[in-house]
Amino acid sequence: SASFREGDKVEGNYRGRGRWYPGRIGRERANGTYDIDYDDGEKELGVDKDLIRAKDDAGGYSSPKKSASF
């Protein structure tokens, strides 16, 4: 089972929807979940460790922010 520390580079399965985005662990919570600070400025709180993986520096990521369409 994976465990992460504050500041670790990771990829998070944003909102559990199957898309992985780069970020860093912002905080480890007492209940075993993590807060992720995504590279684009988004934050996600209380993320289960099963939705986080160590970042692969291969690149090629997109942002979890939705682009506005006008």
List the helices and strands and how they pair.
Layout: E1 9-13, E2 20-28, E3 34-38, E4 43-47, E5 52-54
Antiparallel strand pairs: 1-2, 1-5, 2-3, 3-4
Largest sheet: 5 strands, antiparallel
What structural class should be given to the helix and strand makeup? mainly beta
Order of helices and strands: EEEEE
- Give the neighbour order of strands across the main sheet: 4-3-2-1-5
Shape: globular
Roughly how many Å apart are the termini? 44 Å
Percent helix range? under 10%
Strand content: 35-45%
Average pLDDT taken over every residue? 85
Integer-rounded radius of gyration: 12 Å
Low-pLDDT parts are: 66-70
Number of helices: 0
Subunit arrangement of the protein? single chain
Number-wise, the strands total 5
Describe the structure.
- The protein is mainly β and 70 residues long.
- The protein is built from no helices and 5 strands.
- The chain has strands at 9-13, 20-28, 34-38, 43-47, 52-54.
- Strands 4-3-2-1-5 form a 5-stranded antiparallel β-sheet, with no helix packed on it.
- A hairpin with a 5-residue loop joins strand 2 (20-28) and strand 3 (34-38).
- It is globular and about 25 Å long.
- Mean pLDDT is 85; it is low at 66-70.
